[in-house]
Design goal:
The chain is of the alpha+beta class and 76 residues long. It contains four helices and two strands. The chain is elongated, with a radius of gyration of 17 Å.
Length: 76
């Protein structure tokens, strides 16, 4: 399974976000979007809008999730 932590680490490696650790009694981690990450927002917004306009015409299994597809693709 692909965890949220894995996704955050991958986005950090791809320089889409930065990770800042704030030390203290209980350390805190803050993630921020980078300029490179922000530059992808128009594309993501267009993809979202495309899906919103077509969702009513698509036959999608309500039980399906992107994680199910990733599991099938990985052969697990």
């Amino acid at each position: 399974m692909y965890s949220s932590i894995d996704q955050l680490r991958e986005m950090e490696e791809d320089q889409l976000i930065t990770r800042t650790v704030i030390p203290g009694t209980q350390s805190k981690v803050v993630y921020s979007i980078t300029d490179l990450g922000r530059s992808r927002m128009p594309i993501l917004n267009q993809m979202y809008q495309w899906g919103e306009e077509r969702i009513s015409t698509l036959q999608v299994d309500p039980q399906f999730s992107i994680n199910d597809q990733a599991t099938r693709d990985s052969g697990k």
